[in-house]
Structure formats: C-alpha cells, structure tokens
Design a protein that fits this description.
heterodimer; A: alpha/beta; 2 domains; six-stranded mixed beta sheet; 7 helices; 8 strands; B: 2 domains; three-stranded antiparallel beta sheet; disordered N terminus
C-alpha cells in the first residue's frame, strides 16, 4: 500500500482551471485563425470543405488538421486556444451545480474517448466541479455524443435518448459529431437537438470542461 | 486429417494469408512468404479458408456479408457451447457503462464461468478505405490519421509507405528519423494508457490515477513538440510535412522525468501481488493459437513468437539501431504487460537516440510525390503499439484501391478465443484491456 502513497510527493497534478486561466499545454489544441479575408488557394485542398469562399472558416466542419496553414501561411495560422464552442443555456438552477453525463459512441475514431477518459483523471478531475460520468441513461442529464452516428448506431442512439429522464441535453463532442466531417454526411444533429457543440478532432479535454460550464451558466 | 495437414503445411512453409481484399469480380489474397508480401488474385467463388485458419474467419465474413463476395461453401458458424440450460447471455454494448468505443460483445456464461464470447463488429464502419481512394496525396495522411486516433502514426505510416512503394519514392534520411521519433512517442503514450487501464481493470485505483497522469504528461509533451496530442499532421507522402525541430532543454528535462516515473510505476505494478495474481494465467493465448490467428506485436511476442516488423530490412532506421526484441512464452495477460513495459523503456531510449541523430542529420524532409501512376501496387507496413498495420494500394486505370489490415483486426478474434471456458467473469475486462485493441480500426 505504501508504494502507492509515495506518489503524492510529486505534488498537485490537477489544473487550476476554471479558477485560473489555462496554460498552453493544458489547452492542448491548435485551431486555425484566418489572418485576412478573401478567397484562399488552400480552399480546394481542405478535406472537409471547411474553408468558405470569403476565406472564413466553418468551425462545425473544421478538423484543425492544419493543411490550410501549411499551404497558405499568409492566410491562416494555427494558434493555441479553445475551439469555437456553441452553447445554449443556461440550464435550470437545479442542474447548475451538478451534471451527470452519459457517453455515446456513434462511430468516432477513438480520440474523443481517449480525451474523455483523460478528463476523469487527476490532471483534469472533473468530479471536483460536480461533473460525473454515469453508467446508465436513467441517471443521465446529458448525452455526450462522439462520432457522426452511423446508420448502424442510430437505433441505439434513439433508444438511449428515450431512456433518459427529461429535462435532458445533448452534447456533440468533436467535429465528427457536429457535421460528420470526413466519413459521414451529417452529425448527431440529424437525429437529436444539439445543445452544446464542441468542434475539434478530437477537442481537448479542457474544451469540454469550458463547454459544460458555458452550458450550465449560459455564458 | 486433411485440414490439419494443410494447416500444418501452410504454417511450416512460412506462408500465411495476411489479408483478403474483397471484390466480387476479382478478390486478392495478400500472402506473406518468408521475407515479403505478395498479392495473389483469385476469381470468386473463393475457397473457405477460415475454417482451418481462424485468422481468416472474420475477413471472409466481412467479404461475404459486407462486400457480397460469393464463396464455394456456406459460412460455418463457430462451435456452439451454450447447450446447457444454465447458460445465459450477458449483452455488452454498443452503449457501454464507461467511456469506451461502441464495442458490442455478448458474453455467454454459465454462472461464474464464461462459456464463450461473441463479437459483433462493424458497427463503426465508416468506409475509410473508400474515402482514402478519393484523397489527393496531400489529403491522404490527414484522412488516414482519422482511422484510429490512438494509432494515428502507425496506421498513417503504413498507408503513406504503401503510397511511396507504389510511386517508387525515396524518403529523405532526416524524415526517417522524424518518423522514428513520432512512432516511438506514440508507443510511449499508448503503453502508458495500457498500464493505466490494466491497473484500473485490476481495481488498483491509485496506480490507474498515476498511469493516466503519466499518459497526460506524455500527450502534453507530444503537444509541445508537434502541436498535436495525437501527433497528427506530420506525416506526408514522401517524408514529413514540416521539419521536426529539436526540442528545448525544458522539454528534454520533462521527458527524462516522464521516463523515470514510468519506470517507477512499472516496477511498483510488477511488485504488487494483487496485480500479478489477477494477470497470471488470465487470458492465455498459446503459441499455436497465436500463430493460427496470426497475431502481431506485443501480443505475439508474449505468446513466444519473436517477431518485430521494425527489424525487417528496409524498415526505416530501426535495423541499424540494434534493437532487442523482448519476448515471453506464457502468453497470459502478465506476459503481455511485461512485454509492453520492456518496450516502453526501449521506446524512451529510441526517442533519445532519434533526437541525437536529428541534430547530426541535416537536409530536406520531403521528396514531393509525383502524380499517381495508371497501374501498379504498393505495400506498406508499420509496427504500431499494437503490432503491425498492413496497407495495400492498387492502381488500376488511374483509380486507386486501398485495403487496410490494422493490428486490431487480428487481436479482437484472438482475444475472443482466449475467453472460451474462462474461469471467472472478471477475466473479460482484464483480458480485453490486456489485448488493448481498438474497435475503430477493425471496423474501419
């Protein structure tokens, strides 16, 4: 037993976010920023058609793969930060202190799952903010969807959602879940109303944390 | 018996069918003959090899059910054990009780005993190979990286190498060193993830917390070096997309600390009686079964097969580095954990060596790829954290056809076989973690 306690000599591993601003390594994500407006030569190379004709970026389709910044360095730059999060909210007051999440994989590449597991580990420890993962839809307030929800998983999604008590919310975690991006024509929005959309492939763990705080408090 | 002797003959001759590329008009078998891969095309209806070669059972199922390839004989169902009235089925997935991929299994059990495990794959079939065929050379690695996040580098490396083989393109030495570093960084965070998950499956919560903290540190170092926690965006057809700059002194210091603490965690786990007790003799994959399923990577090396594709001549820089291949004979979960721990330590050393080489070897990192040829084929293979990913590309009239065989496609069926008549239901979780396979790369 003693050998496991020895680990505590390495000090605190948990981030100070949201009490303090996050460090770049905690943010853990590069997101493209448009440096000028107007058409870009990189547009036809974008794997998911996220680049618009006026040079702006459609966050719901962007994988942050960095191809635009590589092909058109004057037009785009990869910067450390949160991805552009879209949240409805605030939630009714009983849900502002604690949320229970149920994860649903609709055909992701496994990266989102890896980040969700990290979110429960000491470096992020979402439990301290009243956010918990639950094994059953009966206890869940939020359905956390990763992946584009392929046809083979549609029924499972709808059954899981139906088993959740109202009020309930849906989070699209990752670009795949929002728009389907590379492999599917649509995301989870085709089947369920999405309350929180966090783009990224995969988004960083802190991005989900920020998104959930936004959803809870409506800012 | 005829089937037995054919099986024996195929094993003795060192020929194995590495992959079946399904096509209703003309299917391809990819054979591994001694030292190299060779394609063999066959017009359907195809012979049913899966009955004598368990590794081909699922590829044939996939060809028949998903690609509608005709076969000479009907599909033989796996032997059924649940005749006893006491047997009952426990369904797992596709919605799991923890954060996990949409893995669907059915556990046929009789009391505490597991009779067998049924796999229900291809829920997550995104048709990655189809999408790869439409991608330009520039786009190709970006699509390949989305096959499975945890093996981004291994899968993409195989795919990019297949494209280079098709084009006859050389990779500059500096890019080869960069690829080595990326591949080993991927192995480090994957093996740390394995240690954490295995500790969690044996209910060692403190060890799991340490493991996940170390994995986080490894991914943060990935991010600081490459700008991606999953090392994405670096591989390109013909080399690397950017020049890999040597890291800062601060990064190196943290890397050494990570190496030291990983070693400490591994030693603590291997000295823990609880951990050893649960892993020893759990999920045993015998050498014969390992060969029959054609498993690769740490799993194969834990079952007494001393193979590492990194040591093949022509595979990047590894053959020059004098890499030892650790192997064990027990074939149980403990042996797989020991192999991964040894590999982890080797990976730290290889990254150090790679970074030293990076300082000496200056030059370009990319040979731009020519346009795709009208005809030809190419192979690519890469040793990832789970074993060898094989990629095959064929050009016909300027159109490309891709076929992938990720390591996980071989590991899942082998995993299910070890749970036939397993003594305890706890074995299910522990064994699943000890194979550490990814569903997204099998389903593709």
């Amino acid at each position: 037993m003693l050998r496991w306690i020895r680990w505590t000599r390495y000090g605190r591993a948990t981030t100070r976010y949201p009490q303090a601003p996050p460090t770049p390594q905690e943010l853990g994500l590069l997101w493209p920023q448009a440096l000028r407006s107007g058409p870009s030569p990189a547009r036809s190379f974008c794997p998911t058609q996220a680049l618009q004709e006026d040079g702006s970026l459609l966050a719901s389709r962007c994988l942050a793969c960095g191809l635009c910044a590589q092909l058109d360095p004057e037009g785009y730059r990869m910067e450390v930060g949160f991805p552009p999060i879209e949240a409805k909210g605030p939630l009714p007051s009983p849900f502002r202190r604690s949320l229970h999440l149920l994860h649903f994989d609709g055909g992701s590449d496994g990266g989102e799952e890896s980040e969700l597991i990290q979110l429960q580990s000491p470096p992020y420890d979402v439990g301290r903010l009243g956010i918990f993962f639950t094994p059953t839809p009966r206890h869940a307030d939020v359905l956390l969807v990763t992946g584009p929800v392929l046809e083979e998983l549609r029924e499972a999604l709808l059954e899981t959602y139906a088993a959740m008590p109202a009020p309930r919310w849906v989070v699209a975690f990752g670009t795949d879940a929002i728009s389907g991006s590379l492999f599917a024509p649509h995301g989870v929005g085709a089947y369920l109303p999405v309350d929180l959309a966090i783009p990224g492939s995969p988004p960083s763990p802190l991005a989900l944390l920020k998104g959930l705080l936004q959803l809870k408090e409506g800012r | 018996m005829l089937t037995e002797s054919l099986h024996e003959r195929l094993l003795r001759a060192q020929i194995r069918v590495a992959q079946l590329v399904p096509d209703p008009q003309e299917s391809l078998y990819i054979l591994w003959e001694g030292e190299e891969y060779r394609p063999l095309s066959l017009r359907p209806p195809l012979p049913r090899l899966g009955a004598l070669w368990p590794g081909l059972w699922w590829p044939e199922w996939e060809a028949e059910e998903l690609f509608k390839v005709p076969f000479q004989t009907p599909l033989a169902p796996p032997p059924s054990l649940e005749r006893s009235p006491a047997a009952f089925t426990i369904p797992y997935g596709p919605v799991r009780e923890t954060v996990a991929e949409a893995i669907e299994h059915r556990l046929i059990s009789g009391g505490e005993l597991i009779l067998r495990l049924e796999l229900h794959p291809f829920r997550k079939r995104r048709k990655v190979e189809h999408r790869l065929a439409q991608a330009s050379w520039l786009e190709l690695p970006r699509v390949a990286e989305r096959l499975a996040a945890m093996s981004s580098i291994a899968d993409t490396l195989a795919i990019v190498q297949a494209a280079e083989d098709l084009l006859g393109l050389e990779v500059p030495p500096r890019a080869q060193i960069g690829r080595l570093i990326l591949a080993e960084l991927e192995r480090i965070y994957n093996h740390l993830d394995f240690l954490a998950q295995q500790a969690q499956s044996t209910t060692l919560r403190m060890a799991a917390a340490r493991g996940f903290t170390l994995k986080e540190e490894a991914q943060r170092l990935n991010f600081l070096l490459t700008g991606s926690r999953f090392l994405r965006g670096w591989l390109a057809v013909g080399g690397l997309s950017q020049d890999l700059a040597p890291p800062q002194a601060e990064w190196l210091k943290r890397f050494e600390t990570l190496a030291h603490r990983s070693k400490e965690l591994a030693e603590d786990l291997l000295n823990d009686e609880l951990f050893i007790d649960r892993l020893e003799g759990t999920g045993v994959l015998e050498r014969r079964a390992a060969q029959a399923f054609g498993v690769v990577g740490p799993t194969a090396r834990a079952s007494g097969l001393s193979q590492d594709i990194r040591l093949q001549p022509g595979y990047g820089l590894y053959p020059q580095l004098g890499l030892g291949v650790p192997w064990r004979e027990a074939g149980d979960a403990l042996a797989r954990a020991q192999i991964r721990i040894e590999e982890l330590m080797v990976s730290f050393e290889l990254v150090r060596r790679g970074l030293e080489e990076l300082d000496d070897q200056l030059g370009p990192t990319l040979n731009p790829p020519p346009p795709r040829p009208a005809h030809g084929h190419g192979f690519g293979f890469a040793e990832g954290p789970r074993g060898e990913t094989l990629a095959f590309v064929q050009a016909q009239h300027g159109q490309l056809r891709w076929s992938l065989r990720p390591a996980s496609a071989l590991l899942w069926p082998a995993f299910a076989s070890t749970l036939t008549l397993a003594p305890s239901q706890m074995d299910y979780l522990i064994t699943q973690v000890s194979f550490h396979a990814l569903q997204s790369s099998w389903d593709r």
